Structure formats: C-alpha cells, structure tokens
Amino acid sequence: MKTIFAMMAVALVGVANMTLAAEKNPVAMVIHGGAGTIQRELMTPEVEAEYREILARAIRAGHSILLGGGSSRDAVIASINIMEDSPLFNAGHGAVLNHDGNVELDASIMEGRTLNAGAVAALTRIKNPINLANAVLEHSPHVMLAGAGAEVFAEQQGFAFVTNDYFKTERRQRQLERVLAEEGGVALSEDPSDRVVEKYQADEKKFGTVGAVAIDQRGDIAAGTSTGGMTNKRFGRIGDAPIIGAGTYADNNSCGISATGHGEYFIRAAVASDICARLAYKRLSLQQAADEVVMDKLVEMGGSGGVVGVDKEANVAFSFNSSGMYRASIDKHGTLVVQIFKND
Ligand code: ASP
Q1: Would you place residue 31 in the very low, low, confident or very high pLDDT band (cuts 50, 70, 90)?
Q2: Predicted pLDDT of residue 16
C-alpha cells in the first residue's frame, strides 16, 4: 500500500513539475554593438575575432541570467555593462568624442510589463550609464534626467564617479581629428605609424552604440541602449538612445527594440515605438515590422542604422540598412548567432 502511495506521490510531483516547466516562457536575447559602414575587406581576422569574442561574451552573460530565472532587465544591464567597459564600442570606455574633445553619454532602459522607463543624457562622469538609467527607472519619479542634474541624482544614489578621461581612447581622439580636418577641408597626412586607426579602419564609419533586448521566463520584455552619441557632436546634443520610443522601447504586448544609427533620423521616425506599433496594429511579424521601418521609412528619410528586437513570442530579429551591424542573438531554442557583415 505504502509503495502505491509513494508511486502516486512521485507521479503527482512529476505532473506538478511538468506544469511548472510548461508555465515558464522560453527566454531569448539579442544585442548589438553598432551599425554602419563596416568593411569586410579592411577588417583583419584578429580584429574580427576580438569583436566576435566580446559579442558572444556579452550575450552569454545576459542569457545566463535569463536561464537562471532572472529578469530581462537584469539580463539587458549585464550584457550592456560588458560592452560599455570594452574600448571597442561607442559606449562607456571608448565612447566617441564631441566637438570639444569630451565624452557625453546617453542611455535608457525600459520594462515591457509596466512600461516603466529610465533615461539619462549628457553624462560626463558615470562609468556605466545604463546603470544610472536603471536607477532613474527604479528610484526617480521622472523618466529622463540630463547633465548636472543626472549626476546629482547619481551621487544621491551612491554611484561612483570617474573622470571624463576614463572614457577617452587614442582611437577616438584620432577619429575626431580626422572628422574635424574633413570638416575644415584639411587633408590629414597619413601617418604610417598610426597603428590604432589602421587596426580598426574597417569600421571607422560606424555608429558604435550598444544595446540589448531580452524576454525572461515570466514573459517580461526589457530593452536598453547606451552610447557616446556621434563623433564631433556639439556640446549638449542628445541622440535617440535615451529617447523612449526612438532608440529604445519595450511593451509586453508587442516587442522590445534597441536601435543604433544616425540618431536625428531615429528620433524623427520614432523608430523603436513605431516598430512595436506596426507589430501590434498591423499584425506584422517582428521581422516585417522592423524591416518596414528600417528598410523603407528610414531609407526614404535618408537615415542609416539598424535595430535588434525580441517579440512576446520570444522571436528575435535584426534589421539594418547599412553594410554591417555588430550583433548577436540566442534564440528560444538556445542557438547562438554572432554576426558582423550583411551576408555573414
Ligand atoms: N544612435 C546614436 C546617436 O545618434 C549613435 C549610434 O548609434 O552609435 O546618438
């Protein structure tokens, strides 16, 4: 008798576990490290491997949080932090320089379940802007804080400060010098010893913003974006990355999007929210909605760049109208993809 009860108990626990397992939503994640003119013929195998390695590391860091039952917001932050700390991308350390030779950073994060969002703009001393955007989401009655006010808030929240020099790299310095010389009609003499520029010349004309979108086991979508903006931007210029609906958007009823590209166009086209709206109202797939906005609407306007997204069914998509976009995904079946060029 006892054995029968024990067997029944085991069977019941088994059924309960299966139900629990069935209730968990599949997780998925997608990230980008900027879109733009990325020339395969100029990229050395060494540099390509560097990018692929860090993209894989960044997405795995976020995805393992999702697998462990963590939130999509935490996953997005973990992936973005790795790219912010890498000098390869235009976010955090290694961000581009503005016209005055300084770094000003923008970031935002949004949660699809509540439509809560946090954004920061024109930061000069916060090491990981996405973390401050998240603090705005969690601890501020506001959605966006900029400049000195954002840094006062950071101090109240116990954030550590770095100097602006922490963000600056020799490569970005040379990039700004080139753009300024071009602007002034001056040709910079090619310096053969300029190894930094030479090494990374394959992607000198890209937008290196970073971003991530994820869906967790509860079916919650989150999206985040972090950037130094555009080389030679004027002091105080704010791009699309911290604008909710332009560079970042997440809604559990449709999708989450993070964008990279010429920010002025992405703001005017309300890129991220327009993609989610097309998915919801026109009943398009995520890929179709993203392509309509990136390949049709933006191209007609003259705006270059791309997006990554995840929908409520955990489908992932990339769309970009430039020759390349640093990107990676781990889909709902656990398949990892890391790509750089258009026909990778
Ligand atoms: N979208 C960013 C901006 O305009 C630039 C980028 O994607 O790298 O600020």
Answers
A1: very high
A2: 46
CA of 61 to the centre of ligand 1 (A): 24
d(CA 223, CA 87): 22
Within 8 A by CB and 6+ apart from 189, the residues are none
Across 1-15, 202-216, 322-336, which has the greatest mean pLDDT? 322-336
Q: What Cα–Cα distance (Å) separates residue 195 from each residue in 192, 198, 200, 239?
A: 7, 5, 9, 30
User: Longest C-alpha distance within the chain, in Å?
Assistant: 93
Whether the per-residue pLDDT at 163 is higher than 70: the answer is: yes
Is residue 285 over pLDDT 80?
yes
Ligand 1 neighbours (beta carbon < 6 A): 34, 90, 207-209, 227, 229-230, 239-241, 247, 260-261, 263, 266
* In contact, 105 and 94? CB cutoff 8 Å: no
Task: Report the atom number in ligand 1 closest to the C-alpha of 233.
Answer: 9
Of ligand 1's atoms, which has the minimum distance to the CA of residue 247? Answer: 1
- Ordered structural domains, the chain, with CATH: 26-341 (3.60.20.30)
Expressed in angstroms and rounded, the spacing between residue 95 Cα and the centre of ligand 1 is: 11
Active-site annotation holds for 209: yes
Q: List residues bridging with 107 in a β-sheet.
A: 120, 226
Q: How far apart are CA 314 and CA 27, in angstroms?
A: 6
How remote is the CA of residue 280 from the centroid of ligand 1, in Å? 26
